């Protein structure tokens, strides 16, 4: 196979007789979040390209009649498997129009998911090969905290609900290990399916690549993982240009057909909390990252529901849940919408992130999505011994029940019974929502629940989601449900009167605050611990 492509010379002169570049180089690196940040502060600080922006770039390339092909050059590609799968779909669409070659200096599980959308996969002879499958490592802090005088109350429904166990235990319990292994098995099955389709082999053959002990590009070539071993300069020639250099040659984006109406996209990203959305840059458990405030998400959904030109809504969820109250308030807006709502699940849509989706008209998940975790948890740190060691002496006046969530002492038996009663009530409400929204019996929901997580494919098999896909799939379904044409526009919704300057200042102030418990006064959580990261 001859992969010699025209390349970029040091000068800008095209070869004789060539008036326009025939190949474009498209660089992919970074985490590739699905959407651009919705808040002014996060958007200003963001320096990474999104899947949304990549799709717009590729759409321009598809319409360039003078373009023969695209070299997709993978750099430090750190996207999650779910985002990589969305990139795969974008590149696969591009192959319908152009020749697409993926150049991979690093052959990793996630880079190959994304690159499998191309028809040709090339790696240099010196490529780093890391195809050891997927794994999860979680550090348990129970013993560490106990040695420092900190205990952790952890009340949960039911056995698979592991959100707070890394604070209360010193090891992973059997139920948690079981569900995480099943989730990883689902991811590896999805990986094998994606690579098998791309390389024209059976899923069994593709699955075998994970355990084949491949250590070099030549070994990957011999196994059939890639199509050629070559360095970049062997692939490209003088009529090639970076994407940025051909922007003036690309046809301006044709306005979408807005006459019939449009689709609103509402993001729900990060731990679900009451109040307004915010971002805390401190990378600590419970404290860091984006937080989706119910006030902000509800306001955005209401704006979409009230907008006369909006005919359908897509709620994009990338969240492990959080506050049970906040999750229910967002769920209510979805459940009461007269306009069809489609939920699209990203890397996570677990616990409260699944709760908000139950009454959507359609639920779309990536095969790599972590979802389910239908369960409830409550807890608090107990600093009795810590206070004693450090000479701290909290004194109380008034009713003990009023101070039951204080970290100064553990729950009494009566208080523990009270909390357990409350979380059981929330669990019953949660399973009822799922049963009604998914047309399942409560008995079946309880079998699927108990805090257990599922991969997107396993959730599809069990009726918890409707189909596999990504945001583009969700937009297509929303247009269909609303009777809109396939090119009807989509718009990103922010709350009404979301002015950039006041909001920017407010978010900056919120980001500077550090709280030990980000869920306010709420202790009942539908939350999955997002410190679980797949590698």
TrEMBL record:
Domain of life: Bacteria
Keywords: Hydrolase, Protease, Serine protease
Signal peptide extent: none
CDD domains assigned to the protein according to its UniProt record, in alphabetical order: S49_SppA_67K_type, S49_Sppa_N_C
The keyword Ligase is assigned to this record: no
Cited InterPro entries: ClpP/crotonase-like_dom_sf, Peptidase_S49, S49_SppA_67K_type_N, S49_SppA_C
Pfam families, sorted: Peptidase_S49 (PF01343)
Domain Peptidase S49: 94-236, 336-484
Family named by the database record: Belongs to the peptidase S49 family.
PANTHER family: PEPTIDASE S49 DOMAIN-CONTAINING PROTEIN, PROTEASE 4
Protein name: Peptidase S49 domain-containing protein
Naturally occurring in which organism (per UniProt): Deinococcus caeni
């Amino acid at each position: 196979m001859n992969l010699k492509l025209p390349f970029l010379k040091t000068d800008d002169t095209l070869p004789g007789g060539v008036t326009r570049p025939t190949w474009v180089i498209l660089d992919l690196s970074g985490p590739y979040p699905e959407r651009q940040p919705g808040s002014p502060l996060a958007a200003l600080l963001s320096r990474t390209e999104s899947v949304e922006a990549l799709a717009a770039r590729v759409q321009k390339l598809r319409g360039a009649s003078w373009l023969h092909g695209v070299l997709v050059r993978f750099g430090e590609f750190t996207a999650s498997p779910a985002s990589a799968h969305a990139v795969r779909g974008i590149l696969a669409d591009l192959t319908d129009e152009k020749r697409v070659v993926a150049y991979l200096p690093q052959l990793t599980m996630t880079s190959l998911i994304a690159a499998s959308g191309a028809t040709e996969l090339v790696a240099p002879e010196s490529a780093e090969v890391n195809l050891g499958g997927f794994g999860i490592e979680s550090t348990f802090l129970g013993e560490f905290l106990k040695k420092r005088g900190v205990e952790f109350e952890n009340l949960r429904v039911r056995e698979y609900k592991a959100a707070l166990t890394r604070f209360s235990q010193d090891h992973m319990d059997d139920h948690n290990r079981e569900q995480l292994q099943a989730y990883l098995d689902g991811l590896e099955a999805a990986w094998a399916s994606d690579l098998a389709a791309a390389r024209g082999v059976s899923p069994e053959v593709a699955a075998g690549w994970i355990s084949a002990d491949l250590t070099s590009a030549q070994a990957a070539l011999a196994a059939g993982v890639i199509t050629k071993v070559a360095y970049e300069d062997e692939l490209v020639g003088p009529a090639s240009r970076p994407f940025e250099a051909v922007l003036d040659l690309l046809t301006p984006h044709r306005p979408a057909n807005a006459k019939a109406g449009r689709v609103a996209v509402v993001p729900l990203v990060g731990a679900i909390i009451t109040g307004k959305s915010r971002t805390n840059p401190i990378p600590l458990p419970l404290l860091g990252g984006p937080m989706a405030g119910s006030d902000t998400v509800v306001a955005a959904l209401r704006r979409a529901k009230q907008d006369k030109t909006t005919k359908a809504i897509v709620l994009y969820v990338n969240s492990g849940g959080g506050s049970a109250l906040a999750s229910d308030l967002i769920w209510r807006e979805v459940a009461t919408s007269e306009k069809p709502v489609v939920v699209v699940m990203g890397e996570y849509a677990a616990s409260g992130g699944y709760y908000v989706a139950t009454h959507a008209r359609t639920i779309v998940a990536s095969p790599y999505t972590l979802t389910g975790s239908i369960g409830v948890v409550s807890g608090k740190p107990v600093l009795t011994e810590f206070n004693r060691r450090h000479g701290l002496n909290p004194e109380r006046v008034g009713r003990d029940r009023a101070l039951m969530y204080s970290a100064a002492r553990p729950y009494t038996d009566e208080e523990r019974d009270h909390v357990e009663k409350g979380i059981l009530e929330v669990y019953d409400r949660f399973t009822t929502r799922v049963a009604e929204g998914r047309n399942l019996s409560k008995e079946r929901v309880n079998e699927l629940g108990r805090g257990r997580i599922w991969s997107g494919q396993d959730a599809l098999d069990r009726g918890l989601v409707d189909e596999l896909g990504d945001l583009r799939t969700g937009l297509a379904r929303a247009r269909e449900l609303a009777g809109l044409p396939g090119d009807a526009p989509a718009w990103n919704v922010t709350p009404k009167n979301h002015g950039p300057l006041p909001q920017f200042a407010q978010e900056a102030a919120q980001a500077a605050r550090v709280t030990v418990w980000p869920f306010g006064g709420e202790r009942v959580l539908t939350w999955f611990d997002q410190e679980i990261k797949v590698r």
